[in-house]
Amino acid sequence: MAKLKLDLHDIYNRGDTIERELNRIIQEAVDKRIDLVEIIPGKGSGQLKKHVLRFLNQSHIRSLYHRIDKDSKNFGRIFVHFRH
Alpha helices, DSSP H only, in 1-84? Predict the structure, then answer.
């Protein structure tokens, strides 16, 4: 199973860059028919994770993936599953 990983630690305070990277990784997963994308917003205050979840919940993005899992063992990690 192929997997992509996006770590947002380095760009946590640049909203436009975050949106661009999220769009890029989702589109790359669709284009390359990747099954899983791991997004790491980090633990912190939880604001970045909320931002990522709001992004993923947009209807035009939600239609691209199958489901989302929040890692039960690691609060700072989100898995996006695709069905191609």
Answer: 15-31, 47-56, 59-62
